[in-house]
Amino acid sequence: MASADEQDITIYDIAREAGVSPATVSRVLTNSARVSQGKRSAVERIIREYNFKPNAVARGLSTSTRILGLMTADIRNPYYATLAVECEKAANEQGYTVLLCNAFNDNALEDAHLEKFYAQRVEAIIQIGCRVDDLSSDPCYAGHINRIARTIPFVITGKMDGADCYSLRIDDSAAMKMVMDHLVSLGHREIAFFGGGKRVKSTYDKWQQYIYLLGVHGLSFRDEYIQEGDYTESGGCDCLKRLLACPRVPSAAIAVNDYSAVGALRAAHERGLSIPQDMSLISFDNTYLSEVVFPKLTTVDYNYPEYGRELVNMAIRAARKEPIPRLQFVTPRLVIRNSCGAPKRQP
Amino acid sequence: MASADEQDITIYDIAREAGVSPATVSRVLTNSARVSQGKRSAVERIIREYNFKPNAVARGLSTSTRILGLMTADIRNPYYATLAVECEKAANEQGYTVLLCNAFNDNALEDAHLEKFYAQRVEAIIQIGCRVDDLSSDPCYAGHINRIARTIPFVITGKMDGADCYSLRIDDSAAMKMVMDHLVSLGHREIAFFGGGKRVKSTYDKWQQYIYLLGVHGLSFRDEYIQEGDYTESGGCDCLKRLLACPRVPSAAIAVNDYSAVGALRAAHERGLSIPQDMSLISFDNTYLSEVVFPKLTTVDYNYPEYGRELVNMAIRAARKEPIPRLQFVTPRLVIRNSCGAPKRQP
DNA sequence: ATGAAAGCGCTAACAC
DNA sequence: GTGTTAGCGCTTTCAT
Questions:
Q1: How many helices (H) and strands (E) does chain B have?
Q2: Rounded-to-integer distance, Cα B102 and Cα B137, Å
Q3: Quick one: fold of B67-170+304-330?
Q4: Considering the entire predicted model, what is its pTM?
Q5: Which CATH number fits domain A172-302: 3.10.290.10, 3.40.50.2300, 3.20.20.150, 3.90.226.10?
Q6: Nucleotides of D strand lying within 7 Å of any protein CB atom
Q7: Nearest beta carbon to residue A88 from set B65, B98, B102
Q8: In a mutagenesis test of the A interface, which of B49, B100, B259 is the best target, namely the one with the most A β-carbons within 10 Å?
């Protein structure tokens, strides 16, 4: 009886069944032109009866695919996962589908994915992390991007000198200022910054601001208070250990991301140090990790839903060739939890 | 000079430039038929010169899309992220692209994604988690799957009664046996199991096996040693607290997943309990969480690379209509870290 | 071995 | 308003 959606029904079948032309079916499908009420409802009835779904591939061939390419460094990293999910939701809301790929820090793979995006005729490419986050842009890569960007708009979360793309990024200086202000207001004067590398633009910006604010608050800069890491848990663990070996151990430490902070927590635990009693710890990103550890981390949040939505908006609008600003910022905000306190009275 | 890949070059352009017919270009592209060495290299030269990439959408219309639909419950969950990443890698190796969607426990959304997969003409659908993991299959949903599965093969990690799909799942009973054997060999006789719900098939299977093994080892079953949870960190935290309130506190606890175990760790910490000195803790999944917490968790691993690869293999082979077994299992293995020890001598 | 031509399912001019 | 028709870019018979 009734609905027996056989193998691949097309608009031709629907048209015949409804006694109209394929064009009319297409019109009701896309709502692109006025169709008489009678024919419209006839078509709609048949469509429902057969549970017909238009072939997106065919539609993609004749017009646009409504697919967005999304490339992250590694979706297993909660930061990327959180943002990617928000992008997916926002895209879905606007009738777009997201094609997700991971670069895994592999340039060749990143290139291959880009080509695939192009082959699939995605309407825009959103890149979160990956090479676009490097401080010094690879000119060769910029060229590559440009070649593709001529056809497909690029929106990135980092920067890429010489590449023709849109950028929506975190205001890292503002984020660092929030963190420093918080720590200083708590009474800290020995503040360390660890876990990242200065070749990464967002880290570089934080580092610059850190140095600057040290001066503003009249705190002295100590070389050993900056410990570079690789953004991983174990990297953060090592950093804190090195910090603990300083002649004058800092009273507060700023982790470049939650991962590093979690590692620092482990180091503290191993050394019998209590956080925040013996040392304050603060970090960036506010991934779910910061709520899962003990103590819960005070950290900077980026409003992921809004961040993702705006990324997708820019992508879609760029795809439609609407004019949009080349560079925009997302404003961070501080989430205060339990990893910071007043410094211990120095002995 | 040279390569100036203008707007959308097609095989016609390549053909003209190489002095052959479009069909010949297609032949070298797909390697589908013999082409004389001379023409082949001419075509290849022009392709390289223009940096030509065939339009995957057009190819998808005329033949197959080489796209796999992958639906997970929530990619932010490290378990799904890990498995999804392995699927992506495996698919890429075989020249397939993965379209990823998240169901977020929203049935309507899950249905919408399925329709989208169908509209995009994915060649097969891999479903990890979602409704296919429920113990009692929603017959209505099974019908829905069947309607789609008539055209597109389904491979799932759970079970779906009455639905025509392939299943590759974890041998949960074997996994639980490893865990119980380990704990018993350490000397534990008061063993709890917490964090999950019995409506979820994989948890139900574990629970059954738990009860069974209690008998095998001559341990008595206690109702209060089973604490249901929701697979989250805070759920696990609550479970352990309830366990600690038992008249006879268990000497070991089995968490249904890493999240729950991490929550239990927090509860233990809050209550001043040391793991594994005061209680042993063991879990399932071996996500990166188990290495990031303190102490690192002893947990069951599923060999994700192999799991993902096999899922993709099944999907692709099913799409090609090759005969494959309806149901297969992945074999778990125990990863011993630092969260288990011998029970404390009872006072 | 190679070219001509039909077709995949849809959209969008273009007529009427 | 609505139908006819010509693509979109590729693959694949079918001839030759």
A1: 13, 12
A2: 19
A3: Rossmann fold (3.40.50)
A4: 0.94
A5: 3.40.50.2300
A6: 1-5, 7-13
A7: B102
A8: B100
